[in-house]
Design brief:
By secondary structure, this protein is mainly alpha-helical. It has 6 helices and no strands. The chain has one domain: Four Helix Bundle (Hemerythrin (Met), subunit A). This is Flagellar secretion chaperone FliS.
């Protein structure tokens, strides 16, 4: 469903989030992208509440960048099939809602996108043990 490359890592680094990206597994990179996007949305909500229009726009732009250049760009639509196609559409929707939230100064739209990301992040975290098991099994087979 997600491409094995580090496109997400590059997007995450470009938007100024914490280091440690290069040594992370592909599964961990996606988790970091969810966290980064949600953090940016939280900051955008704060700036919206404080009336800081410029900073709100910057942080919403950061969230959009993480979604489009990280999460959406990491999808492997060939291997991921229908799930990847649906995620692609959902990420596009989220980016549009964030843009609309910025234009309309609408906190409810920010909360909506954060909720969608939280749901996806929870599901992604939930498959972590299975991903680790498969990776360990693959490593063991490769060592033989």
């Amino acid at each position: 469903m997600f491409s094995p490359g580090h496109a997400g890592a590059n997007a995450y680094a470009r938007v100024g989030n914490e280091t440690g990206v290069m040594g992370a597994s592909p599964h961990r990179l996606i988790a970091m992208l969810f966290q980064g996007a949600r953090k940016a949305i939280g900051q955008a909500r704060f700036h919206l509440q404080q009336g800081e229009v410029g900073r709100r726009g910057e942080t919403i732009g950061k969230a959009i960048s993480i979604i489009e250049s990280g999460l959406q760009a990491s999808l492997d639509r060939n291997a991921g099939g229908e799930i990847a196609e649906r995620l692609n559409a959902l990420y596009g929707y989220m980016a549009r809602r964030l843009l609309e939230a910025n234009i309309k100064s609408n906190e409810a739209m920010l909360i909506e996108v954060d909720g969608l990301l939280a749901t996806l992040e929870e599901a992604w975290t939930g498959i972590g043990p299975e991903v680790a098991r498969i990776a360990a099994q693959g490593s063991a087979e490769a060592a033989r």
